[in-house]
Amino acid sequence: MKPLTSYEGLHCANCGASMQGEFCHECGQSIHSVLKPVHGMFEETLETVLHIDGRIVHTLPPLLLKPGFLTLEYFSGRRVRYIAPFRLMFVLCLLSFFVFHLAIDQVANKIPTNGHPLVNVDSRAIESAASPAEVRKALQDELDDLQRAKESGVLPQNLLDQIDAGTRTLRGTASRRLVELGAAPMSAASIAAPLPVAPAASRDTAKTGDATPDKPRQLTHEPESQPVRIAWLPNVINARLTALGQQLHKNWRTFKHGDAAASAEAKQRMINGVFGALPPTMFVMIPIFAALLKLFYLFRRRLYMEHLIVALHSHAFMFLCLLLITGTGMLSTWLHPHAAWIGYALGWVRGLLVFWVPTYLLIMQKRIYGQGWPMTLLKFWFVGWCYFWLLMLALTVAAALGMAH
């Protein structure tokens, strides 16, 4: 639809006011109908996306590289070119925690269920052995470690399978090393043979020193969490805290002592709960950070809203750095086996980002509040110290609530 050049005689369909432009000056409704062909909707969507992308181009580079620039632009009234502070912080917060959640899931997948240690197969001693005797000794030492892990207790089947696979890997490596040293290789049957497992009664006797293996073992019952009773809190809050404590205890007990499927489910449930509690926690901490700035800059005669904008831009920058650090870490892990030098380069990038965070925040505080370096450093230290411990307390509470999910 082509824009109208004259709006004489036109009235707003919503409030009936005379139109003086494309938008009603009384209620703000557009003169254009929402009922339009599909190609019109596509053009409007494309225009909106390009407009947002333009604001991203103008917002993210100064947010990362120019401390205090966006905040000073916002204070001076030049706001149209940039994404609004709250929207910027909100999007970067969700995006950074989403990527960080993916990274934690990759690490958590390597954490075994049921609280048992991972099977560690190290063949470096075998590969560096200089004689067949050293190869056999290094192999026996590694097999003894796997044997002790296999006889440590009732392990889930997935760990037993890992031990058997590790055994075959070590024997295959030793056989190849023996051939390299001119000795006879190990037979295929000896390579594939699993480690022997002592009978359960023998293991119990060896552990307890009891000469009567038929004596039944005493089962221990893990006590439930105690009810929470805080005198100055209402009963409904004490009841809620008790329920959360019991659920946390149940999740942790399932993770430590449940079967493989239940333990894995409890582990993932706690991780998802923690990451679900983190964004609301940060939304609570941002006004607290603004209150700290208001307290330490009380005589600068700035409104609380100004300190809140500083807090929003500061946290948006930190979320952007968290996103970049996590993303480069995941990329480095993926590329390291194929191009190790890229992994090292990305490691330097992560180190520079970590160093840039406090430097950026210090320069930002200096530029916005305009005090000398000695006073800025002093206030930066006290604000950071107070906020660090408040943040640690809030994240601890959020982690506990999330693990009780």
From TrEMBL:
Transmembrane segments: 86-104, 277-297, 309-335, 341-363, 384-404
Region (Disordered): 199-224
Entry keyword annotation includes Heme: no
UniProt keywords, alphabetically: Membrane, Transmembrane, Transmembrane helix
Database matches in InterPro entries: DUF3667
Coiled coil: none
Biased composition annotated in UniProt, kind: Basic and acidic residues: 204-224
Superkingdom of the source species: Bacteria
Protein name, entry field: DUF3667 domain-containing protein
Organism of derivation: Rhodanobacter terrae
